[in-house]
TrEMBL record:
The keyword Repressor does not apply. Keywords: NAD, Oxidoreductase. Pfam families: adh_short. Gene3D superfamilies: NAD(P)-binding Rossmann-like Domain (3.40.50.720). CDD domains: SDR_c. One of its GO terms (molecular function) is oxidoreductase activity. InterPro entries: NAD(P)-bd_dom_sf, SDR_fam, SDR_subfam_1. This is NAD(P)-dependent dehydrogenase, short-chain alcohol dehydrogenase family. The keyword Ion transport does not apply.
Amino acid sequence: MGELDDTVAVITGAARGQGRSHAVALAEQGADIVAVDICADIDAIPYALGTKTDLDETARLVRHAGGRVVPVVADVRDLAQLQAGVRAAIDELGEIDIVIANAGVVAIGDTETHSEPVFTTIVDTNLKGVWHTLLATVPSIIRKGRGGSVVMVSSAQGLTGRGGDGSAAMFAYAASKHGVVGLMRSAANAYAQHKIRVNAVHPSGVATPMILNDFVANRMIDNPNPAVSQTLLPGVPLVEARDVTEAVLWLVGPRSRYVTGVSIPVDAGHVVM
């Protein structure tokens, strides 16, 4: 028996990294998973994003953990596309209990200061995409009528301006992740009447392909950015996806049943330096 038996969870950005970690861990606790990912690169983002092969591997791992899964290829920037994918998954798995709005992009090391495509892409994915995720999923939780939990994956950069370098990329990332906090707090109030809890987690740099890629590595050699590497605890340059997952598991489960409207850093002390 798992803490999440008889639940359905929607996870965006599920093809790899944090999203995959969350999907597998929730399945191990009994949840069925709607695994959403764009499965395509974005021109303004300077590293490769997850692929359909990656999403299929997440689905395989979820099934191996004992969960049912519906992979959904959808861009969180496209509300109609996201809604259609979620509706199809509901037809197969049933109404939703849990939402993890995890999809996000960054362009650490891109020092261009006036790139509107970079700024717009990051904000549209990291902030508008979270709003779209709420619109596509919360009505299902309300229909189900037994409450639920929404976790928004923000960032340590949603709690501090450390690492700002004047670039469009870092301005957009910090602004979008701060915006997630406002969205979370507003949603916690809006959905409380339906017994839906809404919270945010705030990782510092996480050892996933978003950070561990050639573009970031090459740029960081020449221009180290403290938004990635500064932590209070020694020897922790990056946290692991599983560390974030542990916080997510607590927030979506019964042990946090009275916790809503809060921001939880998972950052080895990044925001208190």
